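explain this.
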Amino acid sequence: MNSETTELRILFAGGGTGGHLFPALAIADTIRKQHPTAAIWFVGTRKKIEARIVPKRGYGFETIWISGLQRSLEPANVLFPVKVIVSLVQSFLILRRCRPQVVVGTGGYVCGPVVFVASLMRIPTLLQEQNSYPGMTTRLLASRATEVHLTFEISRVHFTKQDNLHVSGNPTRSELGTISRSEGARAFNLNPMQQTVLVVGGSLGASSLNQATTAILHDLIKQKVQLLWQTGEKGYDQCAAAVSRAGKETKDLIRLRKFIDRMEYAYAASDLVVCRAGATTIAELTRVGVPSILVPYPAAAADHQTENAKAMVEAEAAVLLNDADIKNKLGAIIIDLLRSQEKRDRMAAKAKSLAKPDAAQELANRIIELAQLT
């Protein structure tokens, strides 16, 4: 796109996981609906989820050479300082070429170099934080950012500078909640009259969720339950082999996917969701109003996924299951919930009451206002 002729020029930085990418896409989609000629770019890495998803959505995509710093002593950490320096230079070149009016960071290591360089170049910056305990990148950049938008009011205590903080909620895609059950079932060749469980390990997969689901395949099949199962890239082959060993009846009731691009269809087709408790996942569950079994990722920073899940459980919108207990308890909890339509309906209504469906619009409005001030 010619940056001289478009009315808005916005650059998003965030990726590595769906939790950082999808809020950015929700905001970008909202801006594009209001300003169809806006030039919108994303910065990410070549090998993560953003490289696959962003180009499909019709946005410009630039890459930098950066990765996360491993918490354990690993050889990959030796290259980290070099990657940071290279990514800072790459960020400068991208920003000079695209000339965005606003840079939006949605967290993760991709966000760091881009937002930092943008602040040095005096480009207005907006950070959007999904989790109750802010990520390291957000905490490091918050004092330099023009605005920092939080999902939870309680997150304010983690910041020294307070005058640039706003509580706006976690953006979700507008398509969520607009798909009928029959449309969702048709998208995955499922029978809309049969009960369906959606198991989602996140965009990177989750080995414990996959192992526990493998262990209860026969229990689900006995109940004639359909299973829509996102395994992640790493777990797919092993899960596919388990399904194959289970026989034809099992295979007929299971839809296995490495990754589900259009989650709005998956949610619509499902009676119950089993998933991690990332902030973006929680925001999506509340927007569509679906009962869930939340299994927090135990290695998440500051155990923030457990905190996310507790908020849902306290509202009676979900069941919390510790990762250590998943193999022994998952099957029984699923069957118990599937047997009670009343319980699931109550959980679904409670979940929907927690939703903040206007978060993407509120953030889009702030970004547009910042752009128009430049």
Remarks:
- Confidence is low (pLDDT under 50) at residues 1-5.
- DSSP finds 16 helices and 13 strands in the chain.
